TrEMBL record, chain A:
Residues 4-26 form the Proteasome alpha-type subunits domain. InterPro entries: Ntn_hydrolases_N, Proteasome_alpha, Proteasome_alpha-type, Proteasome_asu_N, Proteasome_sua/b. One of its GO terms (cellular component) is cytoplasm. It is found in: Cytoplasm; Nucleus. This is Proteasome subunit alpha type. It comes from the Eukaryota. SMART domains: Proteasome_A_N (SM00948). It comes from Musa troglodytarum.
Length: 249, 204
């Protein structure tokens, strides 16, 4: 096995590209990120690992805009993310320049995934160590979309998805609890999924909400705290309701 | 016979341009918008060869947007002017763009500003500027009537005086003009001055 994970271009005898799989490992070690698609709102959330006291947290933005109607969150190697995000931003403007139309979410996802794939099939380079969650509203139809890419260069559309640390637990939660939501309900669902794996509190999660009219809006810590409080209250009420009937019998 | 002119007033800058698209003796259309809204607080009035004008101004606009996405903060008007001039200068000795530009912008803490950038990459920060044959008339009018810190009403009055002068004295004067302004509230269209509306087919 050791001989087949050096150069990326080499398949192992049992059909693995080990460098790609190791890149996926790097993603699994990255911070948790979740995306939920509602009918008129799309929410991205990422876990904020404890910020060092002297660091200016505003300089570490984990959810970024690629264009006025497209946003991206990722899990994995942040330096690799910078490179991909830069290329994607250039492509968004280049597309507008050549065809005088903003990109669709699928187009830019395909572009980013294509870039990730290129680096799995070249000599002397390593794959990008990150998976991305790309959200946006299609400029013509206004339909919201959520896509995910990974280091192998595959991409697909999702109603809700998670990546990074403990993504399996978050995805399980979403599969159990997903329903068509809109507005604040979508935000709550995303936060609830993140809270499954992240320590509760506004300073440990970063949430951004995208709507057709207002584009991307990062929520303030106070707003997140308020919603977290609502969720905890709802949870407590649900627990109490569960216990109450059994006491009567 | 393209005319573009602009001036800086009290807390605002404006750019006026004619709106005819002409090819030799044929007027393609008389409502061609030559003042591009570069971003929320910048205007780019351009005159020159039609293909170059659109190509170059759109290229500048997309690069200005890219800067804002990359850095989370918009370019200042001065930086944009210098970037634009730089691109013209780069192309000059290979494949020059035949485009003359008046860039107007509003920056917080700096206020309004106007930049004159001609096709051979001259850059000047000015209070008033003009390009084209119309400049012979508008520049003279502005030299006579302009004072710094004019109100919007006074400035529009001066613009109208210039347009009247161009219409009456230039041999093939453009009939219609567009006026756009930029101030602390952003860049926007202010008014059109039309003496010929693109009419539909009249009934028999």
């Amino acid at each position: 096995m050791a001989r087949y994970d050096r150069a990326i271009t080499v398949f192992s005898p049992d059909g693995h590209l080990f460098q790609v799989e190791y890149a996926l490992e790097a993603v699994r070690k990255g911070n948790a990120a979740v995306g939920v698609r509602g009918t008129d709102t799309i929410v991205l959330g990422v876990e904020k690992k404890s910020t060092p006291k002297l660091q200016d947290s505003r300089s570490v933005r984990k959810i970024v805009s690629l264009d006025t109607h497209i946003a991206l969150a990722c899990a994995g190697l942040k330096a690799d993310a910078r490179v991909l995000i830069n290329r994607a931003r250039i492509e968004c403007q280049s597309h507008r320049l050549t065809v005088e139309d903003p990109v669709t979410v699928e187009y830019i996802t395909r572009y980013i995934a294509g870039l990730q794939q290129k680096y799995t099939q070249s000599g002397g380079v390593r794959p990008f160590g990150l998976s991305t969650l790309i959200v946006g509203f299609d400029p013509d139809t206004g339909v919201p979309a959520l896509y995910q890419t990974d280091p192998s260069g595959t991409f697909s559309a999702w109603k809700a998805n998670a990546t990074g640390r403990n993504s399996n637990s978050m995805r399980e939660f979403l599969e159990k609890n997903y329903k068509e939501t809109s507005g604040q309900e979508t935000v709550k669902l995303a936060i609830r999924a993140l809270l499954e794996v992240v320590e509760s509190g506004g300073k440990n999660i970063e949430i951004a909400v995208m709507t057709k009219e207002h584009g991307l809006r990062q929520l303030e810590e106070a707003e997140i705290d308020a919603i977290v409080a609502e969720i905890e209250a709802e949870k407590a009420a649900a627990e109490a309701a569960k216990k109450a009937p059994s006491r009567d019998t | 016979m393209e005319c573009v002119f602009g001036l800086v007033g009290d807390g605002f800058a404006l750019v006026a341009a004619d709106t005819s698209a002409v090819h030799s003796i044929l007027v393609h259309k008389s409502n061609e918008d030559k003042v591009m809204i570069l971003d929320s607080h910048k205007l780019l009035g351009a005159s020159g060869e039609a293909g170059d004008r659109v190509q170059f101004t759109e290229y500048i606009q997309k690069n200005v947007h890219l800067y804002e996405f990359r850095n989370g903060i918009p370019l200042t008007t001065a930086a944009t002017a210098n970037f634009t001039r730089g691109e013209l200068a780069l192309a000059l000795r290979k494949n020059p763009y035949s485009v003359n530009i008046l860039l107007a912008g509003y920056d917080k803490n700096i206020g309004p500003s106007l930049y004159y950038i001609d096709y051979i990459a001259t850059l000047h920060k000015v209070d008033k500027g003009a390009f084209g044959y119309g400049s012979y008339f508008s520049l003279s009018m502005m030299d006579r009537h302009y004072k710094s810190g004019m109100s919007l009403e006074e400035a529009i009055d001066l613009v109208d005086k210039c347009i009247i002068e161009i219409r009456s004295r230039l041999v093939v004067a453009p009939p219609n003009f567009v006026i756009k302004i930029v101030d602390k509230d952003g860049a926007r269209e202010y008014a059109w001055r039309e003496s010929i509306k693109d009419a539909g087919v009249s009934a028999a």
